[in-house]
Amino acid sequence: MRRDEILQLPALVQDYLRYISVVKNKSNTTVSEYASDLRTFFRFLKALRLRLPTDDLSGIDVSDLDDSFMRSVTLNDAYEFLYYCKNERSNDAASRARKTSAIRQFFQYLTNNKGLLETDPMANLDSPKLKKALPKYLSVEESKRLLSSADGKNKERDYCIITLFLNCGMRLSELVGLNLSSIKSNNSMTVTGKGNKERTVYLNDACISALNAYLAVRPHDGVIDKDALFLSARLRRISPKTVQYIIKTDLEKAGLGGAGYSTHKLRHTAATLMYQTGQVDILTIKEILGHENLNTTQIYTHTNREQLRDAVNSNPLSDLRAPKSSTEDK
Fold first, then answer.
1. pLDDT for position 261
2. Per the residue annotation, which of 86, 248, 264, 302 is the catalytic one?
């Protein structure tokens, strides 16, 4: 959300956004998402109070909402808003869960940090139940096919990008933000993750080989973003959209297009292959991926069908056969 749009929000919301940005160190993306969610919430509430139609909230000004308005908001208001989001805006459960989080944390801030409210009206606001879908990931053979699909004048760069995704489990924003100075002499790399938190990622032989091959051909003359590791055709830091296009194109070349794979699915692939094939423990994977909570990493403990089949077949009773029926004895 642009700065001029943020200035059109209620003063208390502006205070809250500065708080989560500066004190809580939330990313710009998170701050922008929460700003948008809270703006929609308060536009909806103002429309209800003024008996305005809710089919288009974009023209409703909420900059004048003051302390007394915030004190008037109830838990029922929040549930009415979430009902509206589901039935009139067709928001899925994940989108509504994010809005729930934004509302809950904002009123927690008004209660605990600002002291504006004696009791938090959103303390019992429940979040929509989310389906726990298993993450999509490439098999080892599919991963090799994807690596082999990198070709053309930027072959070394694209191969290196895919290699880092598949071996290090980086987020898209982390890969785009890599610098030449991120690469350390001890075969490690400093990665800046969510909330500007830095972590060290160690590079295996495949990563080192791919990086050396790319650095040997990486342009030097006329480079605008001189420290950026990956460069675009314009000699600037490569953009997230360009990386997404590279991955999408190479997935199609590898015969993996249309399967729902993406840059984030390559992160899933790295984590899943390390856990299932490399037998790396879940706490180690948590550190490699830069997860704040172990619960987030638990999705990679899913088992594939072969493991389920092997588990059943390993039962010591698996080779027993049913006794012959009485009719067969006759």
1. 72
2. 264
**For the ranges 99-108, 122-131, 196-205, the one whose mean pLDDT is highest:** 99-108
**Range with lowest mean pLDDT among 36-40, 203-207, 230-234, 312-316:** 312-316
Cα separation of the two ends of the chain:
82
Q: Which secondary structure element, helix H or strand E, spans residue 4, and what is its range?
A: helix 3-6
Which residue out of 171, 237, 265, 286 is catalytically annotated?
171
Q: Which residue is catalytic, options 99, 267, 268, 286? A: 267
Q: Give the pTM.
A: 0.62
Please determine, for residue 308, whether its predicted confidence score (pLDDT) is greater than 90: no
Known catalytic residue at 194: yes
Closest to 185 in 3D by CA, of 203, 198, 171: 203
> Cα(17)–Cα(27) distance, rounded to whole angstroms?
11
Using CB atoms within 10 Å of the CB of residue 9, give its burial: 0 to 12 exposed, 13 to 18 middle, 19+ buried.
buried
Smallest Cα–Cα separation from 48: which of 22, 89, 76?
A: 76
- Please count the helices (runs of H) and the strands (runs of E) in the chain: 16, 2
Span 35-51, mean pLDDT? 96
Question: Is residue 155 annotated as part of the catalytic site, yes or no?
Answer: no
Residue 220 appears among annotated catalytic residues: no
Q: Which residues pair with 183 in a beta bridge?
A: 189
Residue 222 CA from chain centroid, whole number: 34
Output the average pLDDT for the chain: 87
Which of 145, 194, 199, 218 is the catalytic position? 194
Structure tokens at 95: 């989108």
- Other C-beta atoms closer than 10 Å to the C-beta of 247 total 22
Distance (Å, rounded) from C-alpha 151 to C-alpha 253?
A: 10
264 is catalytic: yes
| DSSP assigned state of 194 | G
What does the pLDDT read at residue 247? 93
Calculate the dihedral angle through the C-alpha atoms of 48, 51, 53, 59, rounding to the nearest 10 degrees. -80
Q: Which residue of the set 34, 214, 275, 300 is catalytic? A: 300
Q: Is 291 a catalytic residue?
A: yes
Instruction: Give residue 130's pLDDT band: very low, low, confident or very high (50, 70, 90).
Output: confident
Whether 302 is a known active-site residue: answer no
